[in-house]
Backbone:
């Protein structure tokens, strides 16, 4: 896993750049970039990790991510046949266009909200997803106009929720990026077994107590809470793939089923069995 600045160099002066069907499911890519990002994925159930928020999506997802917010590629670990469309938008589009043209005020407000990370749901997700899948077919002019229209519909939609209560601030300096990259990479490779805090501290060349203070100050979260959040995100994925609660518990590094159930409920608001039942009920309704 890498927490790193991604350099995006569009070969045109257009404020928009489309990545049609990018495939990164084999790579755990934790990154950020100055460009705003609208990402749509269909035919997949995976982890949605944006900023400090770790959650899951099932079936499809549509998310608008603000400038320089670290995020994980949405197709990481996906084994199914999926569709993914990513629209990058240069920050100058907001600074030189949206902020200067009053008629584009609603879209400018949308970009401000993107500092929280925005997940779109319901009919908005369905309609915008279909439009994003067709962008690659358009001429340059039509692509530009359709991108504006998509942003307009998102700006006027009420079908969304925010991933962070407050705007996310990228706190990671170069030294912190290197350390956090190593920490996240270690967790990704070892979350299925018991992880001692001292092990992770050693990776950072810190003592146990110093590491705990560092992690809390840097991320705003304790390492134990972060590890549990990550494990529960993986647990949800396994439950939706058909594994039972017991298998999921131990496959995600929990040593006690009762502790797994308590942690799952604290983080997700429901116990594992109810989570799985609710998903199956919703799936049946959609069917």
Residues:
């Amino acid at each position: 896993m890498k927490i790193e600045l991604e350099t995006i160099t569009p070969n045109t002066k257009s404020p928009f750049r489309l990545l049609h069907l990018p495939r990164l499911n084999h790579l755990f890519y934790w990154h950020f970039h100055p460009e705003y990002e609208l990402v749509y994925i269909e035919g997949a159930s995976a982890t949605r990790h944006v900023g400090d928020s770790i959650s899951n999506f099932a079936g499809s997802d549509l998310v608008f991510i603000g400038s320089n917010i670290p995020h994980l590629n949405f197709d990481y670990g996906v084994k199914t046949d999926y569709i993914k469309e990513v629209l990058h938008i240069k920050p100058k589009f907001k600074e030189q266009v949206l902020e200067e043209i009053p008629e584009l005020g609603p879209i400018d407000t949308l970009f401000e909200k993107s500092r929280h990370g925005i997940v779109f749901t319901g009919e908005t997700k369905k309609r915008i997803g279909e439009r994003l899948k067709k962008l690659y077919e358009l001429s340059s002019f039509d692509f530009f106009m359709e991108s504006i229209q998509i942003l307009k519909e998102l700006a006027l939609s009420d079908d969304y929720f925010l991933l962070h209560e407050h705007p996310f601030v990228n706190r990671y300096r170069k030294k912190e990026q290197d350390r956090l990259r190593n920490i996240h990479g270690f967790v990704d490779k070892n979350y299925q077994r018991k992880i001692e805090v001292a092990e992770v501290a050693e990776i950072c060349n810190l003592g146990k107590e110093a590491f705990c203070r560092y992690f809390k100050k840097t991320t705003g979260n304790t390492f134990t809470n972060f590890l549990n959040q990550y494990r529960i995100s993986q647990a949800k994925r396994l439950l939706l793939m058909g594994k039972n609660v017991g298998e999921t518990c131990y496959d995600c590094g929990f040593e006690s089923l009762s502790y797994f159930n308590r942690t799952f409920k604290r983080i997700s608001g429901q116990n594992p069995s109810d989570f799985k039942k609710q998903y199956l009920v919703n799936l049946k309704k959609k069917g």
About this structure: The chain has two domains: 4-162, 174-286.
